[in-house]
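Hi F.,

I've been meaning to write this up properly since the lab meeting, where we talked about keeping a consistent format for the predictions we share between groups. The idea is simple: the sequence comes first, exactly as it goes in, then the structure tokens exactly as they come out, then a line or two of notes. No screenshots and no reformatting. I'm using this chain as the first example so we have something concrete to point to.
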Amino acid sequence: MAVGRRGRDLIGPLLVANLVAYLIVLGLAGWSLDKYINGEQNHPHLGGNPSTSFMLIFALMAGVVGVCSVLSGLVHLRAWRSESLAGASSSAVISWAITALAFGLVGYLGSLVCKEIILGGHRGKRLRTLETFIFISLMTQLLYLVLLHAGVFDGSYGPGYRSSGDDHGGGIAMGQESQKTDTSVA
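Output, unedited:
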């Protein structure tokens, strides 16, 4: 069995797992940010420290962009063409980068989730759950990126996986139109 085919078989369940993880991140980050804005930092399920507000904002951004990436991935999974692969992979890279920023692997603000854990203080169970789901979504998005780019190693999956034969138009509307020839003599 080819590498690309196994990758395609795994992308569907992985997209569902990504969608669930990002929706949980959105729900928890939205709830926590609402409590944080209302000045309820002493809520038993929230707590936190000075880096909490930054983590919540980046978690919300990562969740929104992650859900959009999953939707783009579902469109690609259904179409399975090189045109949809470009959109799915670009949105997946952006989503992974923002999720990595929320987790704190990159960026000037320092490690947000990592900083949240290192600074300590009282972190409620919803905040710890949010940190866990940010990590889960970071890893599943990375695995999704690896599976999307499996076509680099297997020609039956990547941008050339569609056999177009000798017609160089491939499926583009302009390439399908037949040419009219005028055979009348003037």
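Notes:
The longest helix spans residues 3-37.
The chain has one domain: 3-159.

If this format works for you, I'll send the rest the same way.

G.
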